[in-house]
Specification:
This protein has 16 helices and 17 strands. The chain is of the alpha/beta class. It has two domains: 133 residues, Chitobiase/beta-hexosaminidase domain 2-like (Chitobiase, domain 2); 318 residues, Glycosidases (TIM Barrel). The structure holds ligand TNX.
Length: 509
Amino acid sequence: ALTGALLLGGTAAPALGTPQEQDLHDVVPAPESVRPDPGSTFELTRHTKIRAAGEAAPVGEHLAGLLRPSTGFPIPVSRGQVKDGAIALSLDGRDLGPEGYRLDVDDDVVRLSAQTPTGLFRGVQTLRQLLPPAIESRTEQPGPWTVPGGEIVDRPRFGHRSAMLDVARHFFDVEQVKRYIDQLAQYKINRLHLHLTDDQGWRLEIESWPRLTEHGGSTEVGGGPGGFYTQAEYTEIVEYAASRHMVVIPEIDLPGHTNAALSSYAELNCDGVAPPLYTGIEVGFSSLCVDKEITYRFVEDVIREVAALTPGEYLHIGGDEAHSTTDEDYRKFMQRVVPMVAKYGKTAVGWHEYAKAAPPAGAVVQYWGTENADPLLPEAVARGNRILVSPANKSYLDQKYHEGTELGLQWAGLTEVADAYGWDPGSYLRGVPEEAVLGVEAPLWSETLETSDHIEFMAFPRLPAIAELGWSQAEHHDWESFSRRLAAQGPRWEHQGIDFYRSEQVPWP
Ligand code: TNX
């Protein structure tokens, strides 16, 4: 009889080969507080329901969409009372802020609460990581689907944790950008900075200057066909990001990095002659013509159209590596252009050189150097600028991991996972107190990257490292702990089809 019960799959002890249960601590980025209750475990079964009403309902649907393919369970989402066997999402969380959440797991119920749908969405990312890695598969898997008991209370250290994708050097289409958005959202990244224009390509349709994309979007590094987003496609990206509780920050890089625009409209050049399109990877050779009035009509048209497509607060105007613009011209240009951003209702962001033009209080200065200081920064802080920290030798996802890495550049230095993790955005820059730090960004430049596989190999596992520096409290930054928790992410990426860099620094299972 006993043998029969086992064969019939009763409630006997787990069979050999049953995946090891998750630990409540195995979460990236590390939560603010974790209190395991070793005596309890929730099991997701074919009877599990999600309870979510009102504004919580879309997050509940999102969670159900993540859980159904691998479990094969129906997992209905409905309003109503929390009963046994339910995952309950509610907006009754107090003192959790705009992105915080509380997750309570016992034998019968998973309770996720927050003050905002965004907080619930962040909590859903934590819950995913507490289920076995096979939950990430898009095909039905055997289970069992357990969640360790206990309580997590969590909220971010910085309100800004962004990733940048360069779609100008190589173009990535809407589906590729959505794929990256989903990957970023898992690590609680809340802003996506899109580098939309550069010497090699202009990637966003501007209705008043159509040749920018017709001509300026027609190639890319290496001479491939390039591409661009129509305004409708761009809006699709913005809305998809919003559904992942992520805000898009568009960047139009000015006054340098503009060969694609200069090639599209001869009248934007000081000599009236349009240069050819450019498919190499040099920087610093192009500049809009600072002394021509048409330059400012052009820039204002672009800023107006981009602002109209942008529900988010920020608009990035580049400003980096303007090596063929004199300092005097650079200031002249920026002093006319920065106010245009405010005129169309947005807050300006620029690479740190634009601090030379003394942007107004509230404007964001993005540090991309490799030193832990810049003379422009203390002045910027004194003016009331917010500093976005993205040191090239720490947070740049395009830098090679080691000499032999086939993709990437190495001008800022080789960047292994421990290098990406081993610094503190709150205290990194001399003369910049933590209160002036808006947050942290992980930029991914695409001179050498052509496919989603390439993006993923460079971003994983360094993106989660930067995400943890931005989300988790400084006292939780600890390489031993991080590298162990990161290792547990590897099998999840395998189920998601992410081809990541298997750094020898990380104890992958
Ligand atoms: C510097 S960082 C650049 C980009 C390049 C990148 C390559 C910055 C603001 N500008 O134009 O793509 O290096 O790593």
